[in-house]
Amino acid sequence: MASTRIPRFPATPASNTILLDDRRFHNLLPDEEWGRLPLAIWRRFSKRFADGETVVYVGTVEEASFSRTGWWLAQLARVIGGPLPTGAETGVPMVVAVTEDAASGGQIWTRMCARSNGFPQVIHSAKRFAGPTGLEEYVGYGVSMALLISVEHEALVFRSVGYSLQIGPLRVPLPPWLTPGDLTVTHSDLGGGTFRFTLEIVHPRFGKLIRQSAVFMEAAS
């Protein structure tokens, strides 16, 4: 595994470097809870690149599983841009690019998952520091989910707490039967500059639908 940082083109002056005092995620947690994070996670979520710059994390998918319902859910979600993983292959590369979004003050996320015998899947989403919890993720065609973050077992955990649909100036809450269930993303540090991202979706009626876990190297500063 390797990592890199991609600057804007043309190159910007030396002042366009990582800012170490970014409190966007910190402000969503009490100081005491934030202080329970391992130093590596604290640093990872406290640095911010200049607007328009991108940091790239490269890793490997270690675990991927679907229930029958979860597989169909992932296929149906392609209608709104394919925000969910669709393949259960492991041992393949995954690349995550995070770009600072000057327009919203948030982040643009692009996830690319390779396949050994087919075209890679690419997932786009945008995180914005707004909404009822202070953090929302937009996954396509006006669909977004509010995220609540917490610290559990020294990991940073993101949980969905409601889905909505943006129609012009209107925001319409989606009823539970139109949502995939509870989405949880866990960021845990493994030491030595490596960390794990785990995505899990659990439906209140159908149980665990999707689980995907990948290990990444820390990106270069």
From TrEMBL:
Entry-linked InterPro entries: DUF4166
Protein's name according to its UniProt entry: DUF4166 domain-containing protein
Domain DUF4166: 37-216
Pfam families in alphabetical order: DUF4166
